[in-house]
């Protein structure tokens, strides 16, 4: 998820995971753990967005933050 984005017509989701979708960084984990994620209200599948509404996370991504065992690994990255 560090590089790229979801395209609605292929996946049912839309937007990039990070503010730097064309760079290989650990921004996915920084943004996953440090941004406030809210449900995106739209006609697509359930996904979450940050306060700027420019990046998104999937429900499975938030498990990397919310599950205690996955969180330990996410914090390492």
In total, how many beta strands?
Answer: 5
Shape: globular
Give a quick account of the main beta sheet: strands, pairing sense, barrel closure: 3 strands, antiparallel
Global structural class: alpha+beta
Count of runs of 4 or more consecutive helical residues: 4
User: How are strands sequenced across the largest beta sheet?
Assistant: 3-4-5
Note down, in words, how this protein is organized:
This protein is an alpha+beta fold and 77 residues long. It contains four helices and five strands; from the N terminus they run βαβαβββαα. Helix 3 (59-66) crosses helix 4 (68-76). The mean pLDDT is 94.
Tell me the layout of helices and strands.
Layout: E1 5-6, H1 8-11, E2 15-16, H2 27-34, E3 38-39, E4 48-49, E5 56-57, H3 59-66, H4 68-76
Helix pairs in contact: 3-4
